[in-house]
Amino acid sequence: MLSVHERAQLVAAARLYYESNLTQAQIAQRLNVSRPSVSKMLARARELGIVHIEIRDRKSTRLN
User: Fold this and answer.
1) Per-residue confidence (pLDDT) for residue 59, from 0 to 100
2) What angle do CA 57, 62, 48 make, to 5 degrees?
3) Positions of E strands within 1-64
4) Among 23, 43, 42, 24, which residue's Cα sits nearest to residue 34?
5) What is the Cα–Cα distance from 24 to 31, expressed in whole angstroms?
6) Which pTM does this prediction carry?
7) Closest CA to 15 of 46, 43, 51, 53
8) Residue 8: what pLDDT?
9) Are residues 59 and 49 in contact, defined by beta-carbon separation less than 8 angstroms?
10) CB of 27 within 8 A of CB of 55?
11) Rounded Cα distance, 13 and 26, in Å
């Protein structure tokens, strides 16, 4: 189970990456962690459902 601090770090990294479009290196500097740590944080955020990525292709989407 994640601590409140760990979850907050994952959310912060995800927001900076997906909403603010910062690079992993930029996020690492802001959060004072290594770039590989940011990559792991983003993967963990996806695993936990903090981040949900969905790709929709019009060809495969049913239109009414």
Assistant:
1) 76
2) 55
3) none
4) 24
5) 10
6) 0.84
7) 51
8) 98
9) no
10) no
11) 10
pLDDT, tens digit (0-9, with 9 covering 90-100), for 1-45: 899 999 999 999 999 999 999 999 999 999 999 999 999 999 999
45/31 Cα distance (integer angstroms): 15
31, 54, 55, 62 from 58: Cα distances, Å:
38, 13, 10, 8
22 is written with which tokens? 């910062």
d(CA 12, CA 27): 9
Are 31 and 17 in contact by the 8 Å Cβ rule? The answer is: no
Percent composition of the chain: helix, strand, coil (DSSP 3-state, to 5): 60, 0, 40
